[in-house]
Amino acid sequence: MEGESHCAPVVADTRSVEMAFFPVLLLLLSVVQRGSSQDPDEDSLAVPRGCGWGLVRPYTLLCDLDSVWGVAVESAAAGGALAAILLGLIILCRLHHVSEAEKRSGVGPILLLLLGILGLFGLSFAYLIERDEQLCLLRRALWGLLFALCFSCLLVQGVRLRRLGRERRSPGGCALTGLALGLSAVQGIIAAEWLLLTVLREGRAACQYLPLDFSLACSYVLALLLAALGAASFALCGKTRQWRCNAIWLLSACLLSLLLWVAWVGFYLYGNAWLGRSPDWDDPALAIALVAQGWLLLLFHAVPEAHSCLRSPPQPSAPDYFDTSQAPSRMRETSFDEDIPLSHRQFPENQGYGFDENTAGLRSAGNHNGNTAPRPSAPFRSNVYQPTEMTMILNGGAVPSAPPTYTGRQLW
């Protein structure tokens, strides 16, 4: 009995140790079973280098270091989206400082353009994910619509700068924004009809389309870009030089966008087939085109236009009275007679006053009896002694000085 009582604590301690190590044993067995059931080659395919245990397919292009283009496009798109958001917030915060109507009219198209640029950067992430039916529908529907929105904003900015250069007044910001939305809605209708005809009517898969069909569906977008280029060219011919800098930035953005479109369409249609990379390099070409177009519009139009709208007007400088090259200002033309009534400053009265003064002078010259009687008071001209031509002739050509008793109210 005493032996059994001594063995009971030992048995209890052994059971507690077994219960403590049982979960650890199960975890080890599960890890060993997973390692024995999967091949190392399959692990490397499931989790590419650089992704770790976080992202799996179909999101591996976001972190795959073997496909460097995906990581580069992701970084550039994220940075561009952050820059567009910050620029939009700055414009909204400083909008109440913009008091000029010509500058406030351009705020609406700029904010709409920033929204389109943000959409371009966001759509580029859709090309970093493996294709499926819903994703292909999203790509085909938003591609032309976002580009049409951006190029419509460029077009209305060209119209605005043209009006400012010719008539020095601009349409309202709401009217320009509505025009841009209406022009971009046409491309939305074209994309919807294309999807209805190819996917629903003919029963094709959304991911199965010819590159030529994709390019032809964006022909309206190219027409908007050409129209924006023409409007920017006409804006340079305005009479006012104040807005020529804005027109030059707009023309640069349109020209670079046109070159970019020619480059990516040519590579998408013929470059991939010529290099033998037609199915593999289609998504990288489209993703790079999206990011490049977003940064181009952001740097060459959105930032300069926002700076022009938010810049405070220049303060008028004081005129330099010793600079003879300057045009005569209003202060130089100001006389001392501005505070005098108009009836006292008419030319016939000045002539009459001159005649009275000369007559009084002749009388005083003929009579040397020392009569110092005051002359008849003449109309008040100014507080400065102003001798007439006859007085200077009688004085021998010299300018006479005012008498000591001259108070400005009488002329001697």
From TrEMBL:
GO MF annotations for this entry? G protein-coupled receptor activity; protein kinase activator activity; protein kinase binding
Name the UniProt key words of this record, in alphabetical order: Membrane, Receptor, Signal, Transmembrane, Transmembrane helix
Return the InterPro entries for the record.
GPCR_3_C (IPR017978), RA-inducible_GPCR3 (IPR051753)
A Pfam family that this protein carries is: 7tm_3
Tell me which residues make up the G-protein coupled receptors family 3 profile domain.
Answer: 112-164
Stretch list, region Disordered: 351-382
Q: How does it sit in the membrane?
A: Multi-pass membrane protein
Q: What is its main location?
A: membrane
What highest taxon heads this organism's lineage? Eukaryota
Fetch the PROSITE patterns from UniProt. G_PROTEIN_RECEP_F3_4 (PS50259)
Q: Name one GO cellular component term.
A: plasma membrane
Q: Where in the cell is it found?
A: Membrane
Leader sequence residues: 1-37
Task: List membrane-spanning regions.
Answer: 76-95, 107-129, 141-161, 173-194, 214-236, 248-270, 285-303
Family per similarity comment: Belongs to the G-protein coupled receptor 3 family.
Please report the name of this protein according to its UniProt entry. Answer: G-protein coupled receptor family C group 5 member B isoform X2
* Source organism (scientific name): Salmo salar (Atlantic salmon)
Q: What is the lineage of its organism?
A: Eukaryota, Metazoa, Chordata, Craniata, Vertebrata
